[in-house]
Structures are given as C-alpha cells and as structure tokens.
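Try it yourself: sequence plus adenosine-5'-triphosphate, in.
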Amino acid sequence: MARYVISLIGGDGIGPEQTAAARKIIDAISDKTSTKFTINEVDAGDAALAKHGKALPEFSIDVIKNSQACLKGPVGESAADVIIVLRRMFDLYANVRPAKSYPNIPALSPDVDMVTVRENTEDVYLGWEFNADPNTIVALRITSEKASRRIAEYAFRAASIRDSKRKVVAVHKANVLRKSDGLFASVCREVAKKYPKIHYSELYVDAASMNLIRNPEEFDVIVTTNLFGDILSDEAAQVVGGLGMGPAANIGERFALFEPVHGAAFDIAGKNAANPSSILLSTKMMLDWLADKHEDRNAKEQGIGIEEAISSLLRQGKKTKDIGGKLSTTEFTELVLKRMFSY
Ligand code: ATP
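Structure, out:
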C-alpha cells in the first residue's frame, strides 16, 4: 500500500470548482484502491492576498514543502506571485503541457498527440524590467546553457518513452535572438546527438505557430523557451478543443506541481459550468509522476482510468458546455467517477 501527502491549492475563479472535482476522484481512489492520499489544503492566490495580505503566505509554503506533490487550481490576478514563485522555489524546471485530440470534440485534427516541454525558470519570467530612461523600459531575457541543457535532456527523454512519433522539434527565434536563442538551439542540437533514434528538427517560433494550425498531427515533442512555450501551449490546447481539456505539469528533480493550462476564467466562475477535464487530466499526470517515482503500478492504472473514463464519456457525447455538451462540472465529474469505479 502506498500513501502520499498532496498539497492542494484551490485557487480563484473556477479554481475551487475544479479542485473539488479533482478531490472527489482522489478521495475515491484513496477509498477504493491501494493508493492512499492525505490531502492538505493550501491558502494561496487572490483570496489569500485579501485575507492574509500575501498571495503565498509562509504557512502555505510550509504545507507545500511538507507534501510530495502539489495539485493547483488556477489563480487569478496574483498568479505570478504564486506559480512563478513556486516554480523557482522548488526548481520546477520543466513545464510539460500535453495536447491531445479526444473523441467527439471540435478540433482542427482528430489525430493530435503532442506535448510542449517549456523551460520554466528563465527567459523574461524573472521579471527583470528597468527604466532605461523615463520613457523607455528594458526587459531582460535570460538564457543559460545549464537550463537549456536540462530542458533539452528532459524533452528527449520524454520523446524516448512516448509510444508515438519519436520526434523533437526545438522552437526558437535564433535568427533574431542570435545569442540567447542561438545558445538554446546549439545546446538542443548537441543533446540531439545523444539520441540518434529520435528525429530532431528546429522551427522558428512564427513557423511553429503557423504549422500548429496547418498540420498539428505532425508534432510530437516541442522543446522551447519559457515565453514561447507559454504561448504555443495555449495555442495547442485550442487546436484540440480548448483550454478546458488542457493539463500541465511543472516538474523538478524532487518535487512536482500539477495544474490546468487555463487561468481562473472568472466569466464562468461559480456557475458549475467549467470543464473539469483539465484538472482531472492534471491529476492523471500527478498519478503518473508519483507512480514512476515510487514504482506504484496502481497509481499508474488509476491515472489511465481517469483518462479512459473521460474519453469514453466524450465518445458518447457526454460533454461540458465549452466543448459543445450540456453537462455541468459536477455532473461530468460524477460520470467520471461512475465510469472509473462502475457504480
Ligand atoms: P490567464 O490570463 O490567467 O491565463 P485568461 O483570462 O487569459 O487567464 P482563462 O481564464 O485561461 O483566460 O480562460 C479563457 C477562457 O476560456 C475563459 O474565459 C473561459 O471562458 C474559457 N475556459 C478556460 N478554462 C475553462 C474550463 N476549464 N472550462 C470551460 N471553459 C474554460
């Protein structure tokens, strides 16, 4: 029997509805299988800022530090003060965002199965912006060989274990950002030499964003820098039917945080209208990560069970409103639960 301590950030907007859905599934896995969870809720985000004067108070950080993984709902205006801080604090260097076609969802192609591996610690996200003079701002974009190599290695390892096309494309803009993206590209090229069975290519970010629309099924693993990865992964999510289906993982050497790609979606908050698939598929990624780390076969199977339940519901046209269905967040979650445990 395996037992894991998970920290859970409810977040803002649709965050609490999303995490309630994930919690139902995690609690059911705990009740009915050999993989057990203790879930510790964490105060973070806009609501925490209003209540405690800090979007990520020290006591919240302590709860996260004492957990084995964190599952996070989207945070609103204070997102940068939560997620960017956590990514840096736990050195969560790889932002992994799969985009996959699921049955019966309006998508640009029915055969997309790709993942964006985004460098998560550098680029413009360090927030170093300065006034050069009163009317001019300079923003620093950081690129190091170490971070480039680490993310390239991660991407090639991911491509090696995916049972798909075995391709890595490095996306950059080295024709303009000659030094910074030049370094990123040359490191990717070097790492590629160690993986002769993986097909390696490069695309400028403008061409990549166009090809994602033109022939998205051609992509397997995209490895890219932080800002380009942020933009391309939202685009990829839209290509396969929208943000409601988009999970993400922030992976470090010892810790990982899982969250939907989307933001707090205040326009539909409190209406029981959000698609919980994004956080349920993020939960699947968490189970996968824990399973690999702890050789926990049951955790892996439960993760597969979540994805299979979602696929089979979609195949039958049982969908939430964002993807053309009628079901509410809670109705869809209940059906996932029934499908997983056949009751
Ligand atoms: P951020 O800037 O924080 O990334 P945003 O305002 O750009 O957020 P999101 O909150 O990510 O945008 O979502 C954009 C729109 O997509 C929302 O307004 C909402 O209508 C829709 N959306 C996002 N997530 C979901 C979901 N899980 N279910 C249904 N619709 C969603």
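One thing you can check immediately is this: The chain is about 45% helix and 20% strand.
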